[in-house]
Amino acid sequence: MGFWNAALDGLFLAMQAVTGLIGLYQVALSVFGLVYRKRTVRHEPSKRFAVLVAAHNEEAVIAQLLENLQRMEYPSHLYDVHVIADNCTDRTAAIARSYGVMAAERFSEGDRGKGYAIRWMLERLAESPQEYDAVVMFDADNLVATNFLRVMNDRLIEGKKVIQGYLDIKNPFDSWVSVSMAISYWYTNRMWQLARHNLGLSCALGGTGLCIDMPLLQRLGWEATGLTEDVEFGARCVTIGIYPVWAHDARVYDEKPITLRASLRQRLRWMQGHFNCAQHYMMPLFGASLRERNLAKLDAAIYLFQPMRFLILFLTSFMLLFQLSVPGSGAIANVTELLPTWFWATINIFILVQMPLAMVLDKVNWKAFLGLPLFPFFMITWFPVTSMALFTRKNRIWKHTVHTRAISFDDLQSR
């Protein structure tokens, strides 16, 4: 029993040490998200964009996005919209053509999923006589702030190669599930993405609202065909020293599931892809960070270790509850004495307070604050999702999320 007691002590000591360091790290970095210096657009439009819209059976929502894209504050001759109708069995392609945009229909039984569709479209663009300076990617269920291309044009002229726009939610008030997801996004945008941007670190790519320099794409190619092509491409960029930057002033509005079942399915796919990507890129990035003394690569490796914004809450909450419920006696005493209860309580309170603070700072609609009491229950649902994803991380079968919220950009602005 002595061996097992020592092993148990070692396990929990290590867990507390790692979790404590991660918690302190995130708390320290998040402070830099409190300040946002609004940038003015300084450069006139000059970059030419290929706007890619990945779509699979999106006839219910794609018209609103295409109408939205026609109203961009950017010269129409400097951007072309390309809809990728990927394995569609509905009217997605026909609706796209009715808006005068290019609709490319792709059918493949084997290579299914957004990553493959994007790679296929980029290969077609490479064969086209039309030249582009950059590619912008949206999902068919999105809506886009009309200044989006102006902001991306500015960043590209300043030499940025990969830019991620602010990820907002277009239907936060549909259910407790959608508002909970929105709260997590608002927190991440401010206390994770903006904070890292202010420190000169790499931001995390979000799969939509993404702008990539075309010469960089031609150099790297598009090999991101997993379940989370955004995480994969971002990790690859950081590996070669290209750090994606954050554009807090360029918003994309994404539709989120309104039922818990649909949300669980979507998040399971995200976590499966995340674990799979971490398996390939985390240790090389960690090793490179030590060799090069590079904080940006270390930060990227930590992000790949787990979806940190959720892992921190899980592990620090667990430590707090463990220390409150288990008497500090016998073999367990060594476990509970490494870091005091006040430490875990402080970390948890600091992180939880940051969520409504981020919402206040980004001037979120007051109705969203009514969802805060239910948010802890939503966070608990990440535990089974993350656990299942760990054991099914080799899965590469894409499961489509059905989108039905046909909200116009005018509706979005008037709420």
Please specify the SSE layout and strand pairing.
Blueprint: H1 2-30, E1 49-55, H2 62-69, E2 79-86, H3 92-98, E3 102-106, H4 114-127, E4 134-139, E5 143-144, H5 148-157, E6 162-169, H6 176-199, E7 210-213, H7 214-220, H8 229-239, E8 245-254, H9 260-292, H10 295-305, H11 308-325, H12 332-336, H13 341-361, H14 375-380, H15 382-391, H16 409-414
Parallel strand pairs: 1-2, 1-4, 2-3, 6-8
Antiparallel strand pairs: 4-7, 5-8, 6-7
Helix pairs in contact: 1-11, 1-13, 6-13, 8-9, 8-10, 9-10, 9-15, 11-13
Descriptive terms for the model:
alpha/beta, Spore Coat Polysaccharide Biosynthesis Protein SpsA, Chain A, 53% helix, 415 residues, single chain
Question: How would you describe this structure to a colleague?
Answer:
It contains 16 helices and 8 strands. With 415 residues, the protein is an alpha/beta fold. It has a single domain, classed as Spore Coat Polysaccharide Biosynthesis Protein SpsA, Chain A. An 8-stranded mixed sheet has the order 3-2-1-4-7-6-8-5, with helices on both faces. α8 runs parallel beside α9.
